[in-house]
Design goal:
This protein has 360 residues and is of the alpha/beta class. Helix content is 44%, strand content 13%. It has helices at residues 3-13, 20-28, 32-47, 88-96, 118-131, 142-152, 156-166, 181-187, 194-206, 223-239, 266-279, 290-293, 295-301, 318-321, 332-341, and strands at 50-54, 56-59, 105-108, 136-139, 211-217, 243-250, 285-286, 308-311, 345-349, 355-358. The radius of gyration is 19 Å and the shape is globular. The chain binds iron/sulfur cluster.
């Protein structure tokens, strides 16, 4: 009998918090099915047999970025081929074009454009919100919010208040990468530090704004760094609750400055889902982001603790710039079939996890 694993099993049965050492032990353990069983138990306690999805439209306003993070294939210079910045009219049209398809969320995430003023972003949100007040707008990562604060001189709270008044309903979880400033210094020195990223989410939560959180893994970080990242998220959630979902994102090396690094393996991806589910006992949902994981691994991840498979994103650009070889969008029927085939109940949700429809 594996005494250490039994100890972890005992904690999971009793709803006790796992330690950093427990998380590392699970990561290094090779009995995938034992880990899956524990993660599934934790998932069932949170969301029973439900697996959530939503119908959303990603709007990536620009790919021109002053930050040029080494792991990113999306952000480029304004002179580079393929550089673009939507006008507010174009952004509006991009959103409006899919409204008839039952979209319940506009998901607005972009790069750190060196010249576009904050007013531009506010105008885009405001126009979408005024035209479609029932469609939730999840907009701007903590890194972007922090950047808006830098270019305007407004505080983080003032930036969030302005966006909220324009119609922003919640903020996504991107830009966390790995919350370790040595790593950030090597990979993305020109954007928000770990503390700055956490501070944006802390402020948002204190204002009652829901957010998500992510982890970009599989580049230069160690397993210890990943566990430390999860614990920082867990601590913030204890202090100022507001994270709805955690989304682990495998690093996709293609077209980045880190091409010597191999893409993560399927075992690493599903273990990361399972360890996240087990470590983040105070975050309700773990999302298997099919765009980056691939549809097959995302479906498998449902047996490793994931209870959300993201949206029927209609044309996604950021991950595909980095070589994601998945479809740019899949239909609602395909998502429902994927979830049913895995043996779970597909549940369409809105951005705030209100249930819209169950597909029994
Ligand atoms: S990750 Fe974001 S901030 Fe970094 S280069 Fe890409 S778009 Fe710019």
């Amino acid at each position: 009998m594996d005494v250490r694993l039994e100890g972890i099993r005992h904690k999971v049965h009793n709803g006790e918090r796992l330690s950093a050492e427990d998380g590392l032990y699970l990561y290094r353990h090779n009995d995938l099915l034992a880990i899956a069983e524990l993660a599934r138990e934790a998932k069932i306690k949170k969301s029973q047999d439900k697996v959530f999805f939503n119908v959303n439209r990603h709007i990536n306003l620009t790919n021109i970025c002053h930050s040029r993070c080494k792991f990113c294939a999306f952000g480029i210079d304004s002179q580079d081929q393929g550089a673009y910045a939507m006008t507010p009219d174009e952004a509006f049209a991009w959103g409006a074009e899919v409204v008839e398809q039952g979209v319940t969320e506009f998901h607005v995430v972009s790069a750190l454009h060196p010249d576009l003023p904050f007013d531009y972003y506010v105008e885009v949100i405001s126009r979408l919100h005024q035209a479609y007040p029932d469609i939730h707008i999840q907009a701007f990562t903590a890194v972007e919010i922090h950047y808006f604060s830098q270019i305007t001189g407004l505080s983080i709270r003032e930036v969030l208040e302005t966006l909220q008044e324009a119609g922003m309903g919640s903020i996504p979880g991107g830009g966390a990468e790995i919350l370790n400033d040595n790593i950030r210094q090597q990979l993305c020195p020109n954007k928000a530090t770990s503390d700055e990223w956490l501070e944006v989410h802390r402020t948002a939560h204190q204002m009652g704004i829901k957010t998500n959180c992510t982890m970009l893994y599989g580049h230069i970080e160690s397993l210890e760094d990943r566990i430390d990242h999860l614990i920082q998220l867990r601590n913030l959630q204890d202090e100022a609750p507001g994270f709805q979902a955690f989304i682990p994102l495998p690093f996709l090396p293609e077209n980045t400055h880190l091409q010597g690094i191999s893409r993560t393996t399927a075992v690493d991806d599903i273990k990361t889902i399972a360890v996240s589910r087990l470590m983040l006992d105070n975050i309700d949902h773990i999302k298997a982001f099919w765009i980056m994981l691939g549809i097959g691994i995302a479906q498998l991840a449902l047996h490793f603790g994931a209870d959300d498979i993201d949206g029927t994103v209609i044309e996604e650009r950021i991950m595909h710039a980095a070589g994601a070889d998945t479809e740019k969008g899949i239909t609602k029927n395909e998502i429902i079939r994927l979830i049913q085939q895995a043996g779970y109940l597909p549940v369409e949700r809105d951005t705030l996890y209100n249930i819209l429809r169950e597909f029994r």
